[in-house]
Design goal:
Shape: globular
Strand order of the largest sheet: 1-2-3-4-5
Structural class: alpha+beta
Distance between the termini: 29 Å
Order of helices and strands: HHEHEEEEEEEH
Radius of gyration: 19 Å
Number of helices: 4
Strand content: 15-25%
Largest sheet: 5 strands, antiparallel
Number of strands: 8
Length: 181
């Protein structure tokens, strides 16, 4: 154990020289989603943050599981951060789901999962649809760009949220690469 102290001191000095400890990207993404999720919903649709679920809150967990089954097929339950339920019956069957690594939603009957790091740019078209542009590895047909919106979401706030997440993901990726050089 005594031999590890110099090694630890050396590692700590390298971390300090490179700008200090870096908060994990997933934690930063969770904080950003937390900050924006209520503003993204147009008000009539409920929002849920998974970390706020009580241990025995079976109704909310069932909604989450339904969202994962219906449209967020690429997301594991432990990766889910929050979701907005736009289903008519309030069962979580439609909406958007934010995970630690991307966003899931339905686009023209396709269940879409877009990784944050793959979004190159976004634009709001027709004043209400947020179009995501990039090379999305999880999509079967990449001939068009998926969009989120209509009257269900505040797309300008959604764009702001996703831009903040993208900035964090890109910054942390570059920081990690510079540490490994």
């Amino acid at each position: 154990m005594i031999y590890l102290r110099p090694l630890r001191k050396g590692i700590e000095s390298i971390i300090e020289a490179r700008g200090g400890y870096v908060e994990p990207t997933e934690d930063k993404v969770e904080k950003i989603v937390e900050k924006y999720i209520d503003k993204i919903s147009t008000g009539s649709y409920p929002t849920y943050l998974v970390k706020n679920f009580e241990y025995n809150d079976d109704k909310k967990r069932k909604k989450l599981k339904n969202a994962l089954f219906e449209y967020a097929l690429k997301v594991r339950e432990d990766e889910a951060i929050g979701f907005i339920d736009t289903s008519l019956v309030g069962d979580g069957g439609s909406g958007i789901l934010f995970s630690k690594y991307g966003i899931a939603f339905e686009y023209t009957s396709e269940k879409v999962f877009v990784k944050y790091e793959e979004i190159i740019y976004m634009s709001i078209e027709k004043g209400k649809e947020l179009v995501l542009c990039g090379n999305f590895s999880e999509r079967k047909d990449d001939s068009d760009n998926p969009s989120i919106g209509g009257i269900l979401f505040n797309t300008s706030v959604l764009e702001e949220c996703l831009q903040e997440i993208i900035n964090v993901v890109w910054y942390n990726t570059k920081l990690i690469q510079s540490l490994s050089d």
